[in-house]
Amino acid sequence: MANDKLIVTPRRGLAAIVGLATASLLLVNIPKEESGRTVKVEMAPDGAATVQHISGRQYLRAYLDIVGVPTACDGLTSYHGRKIKIADQFTEAQCTAMLEEELVVHAKGVMQCTPGLALTYPRRDHARFAAVSLAYNVGVANWCSSTARRMFNASRITAGCDALLPWNKVTKNGKKVVSNGLAGRRSRERAICLKDAA
């Protein structure tokens, strides 16, 4: 339902891992990238987030993504280690809670292998956002072996932001092909990331 407010509780929440600004960026941008929907997020000082659906389709029933993987909510292909099945259905509240939990899992992985994005570094909110957004899309293991991660750990923020761009391909019929959707997403992540390089 549009305009319903959902509270995301801080239970060692996202803001504790990546900071308030990065958590807000993730909770606003991931639904836009994954589902095309618009949400409004208000962050409390304790890290609790109030998420309000404004517009756009919500995928409460599972669907097949561009490469045929069952997906639900805001890009979830699994939850608590269980793959999403095409028959799965969720409520809006479940989707919001699941998104926050999955972002926490991905953020922890990113922060563990990327000490160059530690909260003690100033002006890293946008780079942290880009790193977690990419990891949410391609997996933590891929992030941790990426050139972007190596650049961020070396405090080469611009180079790290630029290294996001090659992650624009999907596998179709056994071949890697550029996805216009992923190319656009990587460009948007890079643009946000570069705000820390200025």
TrEMBL record:
Listed transmembrane segments: 12-30
Biological process annotations from GO: cell wall macromolecule catabolic process; defense response to bacterium; killing of cells of another organism; peptidoglycan catabolic process
Reaction(s) the record says it catalyses: Hydrolysis of (1->4)-beta-linkages between N-acetylmuramic acid and N-acetyl-D-glucosamine residues in a peptidoglycan and between N-acetyl-D-glucosamine residues in chitodextrins
Coiled coil start-end: none
Keywords (A to Z) from UniProt: Antimicrobial, Bacteriolytic enzyme, Glycosidase, Hydrolase, Membrane, Transmembrane, Transmembrane helix
InterPro entries associated with the record: Bacteriophage_GH24, Endolysin_T4_type, Glyco_hydro_24, Lysozyme-like_dom_sf, Lysozyme_dom_sf
Single GO MF annotation: lysozyme activity
Enzyme's top EC category: hydrolase
E.C. numbers: 3.2.1.17
Matching Gene3D superfamilies: 1.10.530.40
Pfam family, one: Phage_lysozyme
Domain of life where this protein originates: Bacteria
PANTHER family, per database record: LYSOZYME RRRD-RELATED (PTHR38107:SF3), PTHR38107
Family: Belongs to the glycosyl hydrolase 24 family.
This protein's name: Lysozyme
Species this protein is from: Sphingobium yanoikuyae
UniProt lineage: Bacteria, Pseudomonadati, Pseudomonadota, Alphaproteobacteria, Sphingomonadales
